[in-house]
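thought: fold this chain, then report.
action: predict
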Amino acid sequence: MSEGQLFLIGIVASAILYFLKLLASLKWTPSKEVVAIGLYAVSFGLAAWFSGVGVPAFPPFADAPTFVTAFLDFCGQLLAIAAPVAGMAYLIYNILLKRVFEGAAKFLKRKK
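observation:
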């Protein structure tokens, strides 16, 4: 990852932390699990943006049987594109998780 990408991840972590503090000031704090899921969604979006991936074109089809084949081919293409993005998202997630949970340790609820 480049220095610019790491800088942007830090800015996103600060924005998320600010949003969580805003929610806490409104007397609602999400659980750690909800925050973790949200962080992974943000991480996946950042990874897709950093990778510059696009959705492939849907293959041509003529009737129902060829549509099924085209659909399965399209799903295979999406999985091939999503695999490296998911790996990069996991790396970004680990960075965001550490930064956000260190900053929000005081006001995030634990699930009981």
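thought: worth noting. Residues 3-103 form one domain.
final: tokens above.
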